[in-house]
Write a structure and sequence with these properties.
Blueprint (H helix, E strand, L loop, with lengths): L14 E9 L7 E7 L4 H12 L7 E5 L2 E4 L14 E3 L5 H4 L6 E6 L5 E12 L8 E6 L9 H12 L7 H8 L10 H15 L1
Parallel strand pairs: 4-5
Antiparallel strand pairs: 1-2, 1-7, 2-8, 3-4, 3-6, 6-7
Helix pairs in contact: 1-5, 3-4
């Protein structure tokens, strides 16, 4: 993932944020529990969510906190100035926009499929000197494949691959690479991937 230059000085913090990231509307729920430093910018948090959920960071995204939008402003876009102002996420720290436990952050990835996530601050803890951050503590179920068509498309996809008699069964299996387990979640693999992107954050 590309590194963006942050606008604010990166200072260490004595706080660690425990966050639960849930894919809104998923039934049964698809979620991850992660711990990150409070000094992370929202761009850093974006990287963590992408890796923890298993997304590929190939689409646009946006955070919304108390009605304020954060993301990657595209000042060269012909649509610049339309809609709500988007504040550069690379210059905003997590502990600034979420100073308290219970804060809820909306995160949307891929404005076409509209994967909406709820990020809730469960705990604010002291840093463990022996721990490495970011870290995923636990989670449940695989994220849907990219470009499957949102939650509605994902339901159709699961129905097709789970029923050999479905007319689109073979087509969908070939599209997804031959197999897909919606119950799969590999904690070790997620944390190994987080170690790989740690250099972009710290």
């Amino acid at each position: 993932m590309p590194r963006r230059t942050t606008k604010k000085a990166r200072q260490d913090t004595s706080q660690v944020y425990q966050l639960k990231v849930t894919l809104k509307g998923s039934k049964p729920p698809i979620w991850r529990r992660v711990q990150v430093r409070g000094s992370y910018t929202l761009f850093d948090l974006h990287i963590v969510v992408q890796v923890a959920m298993g997304w590929s960071d190939s689409h646009l995204h946006e955070f919304v906190v108390r009605g304020v939008h954060y993301g990657e402003p595209d000042l060269d876009s012909p649509f610049a100035g339309w809609g709500p102002e988007v504040i550069d996420e690379a210059g905003v720290r997590l502990d600034e926009i979420a100073p308290n436990e219970g804060t809820r952050i909306q995160y949307e990835y891929d404005f076409g499929d509209s994967w909406e996530h709820l990020i809730q601050v469960e705990k604010i803890l002291p840093v463990d000197p022996a721990a490495r951050y970011p870290v995923c503590l636990t989670g449940r179920r695989s994220a849907p494949p990219e470009d499957v068509g949102g939650l509605w498309g994902y339901d159709e996809f699961l129905e097709a691959i789970g029923n050999p008699a479905h007319p689109a069964h073979e087509e969908w299996l070939e599209w997804v690479g031959g197999e897909f387990d919606p119950q799969a979640f590999d904690l070790e693999a997620v944390n190994a991937a987080l170690r790989q992107v740690e250099k972009y954050i710290d």
